[in-house]
Amino acid sequence: xxxxxxxxxxIGTELVSELRQRHGPQNVLAGRHKTxxxxxxxxxxxxxxxxxxxxxQLKAIVQNHNVxxxxxxxxxxxxxxxxxxxAAHQVNINGVFNILTVALEAxxxxxxxxxxxxxxxxxxxxxxxPNDTIQRPSTTYGISKVFTELMGNYFYTRFKLDVRGLRLPxxxxxxxxxxxxxxxxxxxxxxxxxxxxxxxCYLGPDTILPMMYMPDAIKSLxxxxxxxxxxxxxxxxxxxxAMSFTPSELASAIKKIxxxxxxxxxxxxxxxxxxDSWPSSLDDSAARKEWGWQPDFDMAALVNDMYSNxxxxxx
Length: 315
Ligand code: AKB
Description:
This protein is α/β, with parallel strands linked by helices. The chain has helices at about 10-25, 40-45, 55-65, 80-85, 85-105, 140-160, 185-195, 215-225, 245-255, 270-275, 285-290, 300-315, and strands spanning about 1-5, 30, 45-50, 70, 110, 115, 160-165, 165-170, 170, 200, 210-215, 240, 245, 260-265. The strands form four sheets. Strands 3-2-1-4-5-7 form a six-stranded parallel β-sheet, with helices on both faces. Strands 6-8-12 form a three-stranded parallel β-sheet. Strands 9-11-13 form a three-stranded mixed β-sheet.
């Protein structure tokens, strides 16, 4: 059985659907906490309420369902983590440690835990950020992602538990909305453009950040998971890059599809300071070399696909 935690989230919903197609609906357990699962996920296969901060409950679920692989997606994203550092510590640090210890005890074969571009900070080279470089993030979320990477590598080196992870950038998708990240403006801009022909952006017009379309994010997680361990020199800490853009560049691309669209800016100092501490682009040559990473979507392809799918959904 494959367990996906955070299965009601932006990435979780789409990962569960893809895994159920590949491995059969009965072989993928959707683990959610407070947010209910979308109907198609709830009705298409097994699900459980999984509180990753509750070690005993987690252990029972992993053992009762004979879980062999875990995609651990539950996480409190950057902006929300800053407003509740205690909850972020519980979920993003204790939760990760619980997942790793339960996986080890229950002989789970593999654990995949996404990290984030938030694992870098203002001291890191911002352009073409190397895979292995200085990591001194200034956010609770970023600190928890450095913990995740280091602990994942530690469990691999010390206990030979196959833990793998990659640093996701902002992920854009039209099926399930993201919650409380810093890069979420990019998704919200499409909703604003389609529903109201306008959007007020909380980041400044020239804030450049790395971004990726959901099909590539799912592909990256699954390709990393199925890569032969013999080709990996890194484990829990791969850079993956697809594209970088600013709010003003995204607004111009959306305006080409919807000429009535207009953008205004009302900068939120907290989210702006988080964005300013993150890379503008990443050197992902380690991922390309070690497990063949290559994205399918550039910005133009993303904008066209995202706009038309979201327009259909909102009709
Ligand atoms: C966030 O903005 O918090 C996330 C991330 C980059 O990890 N999307």
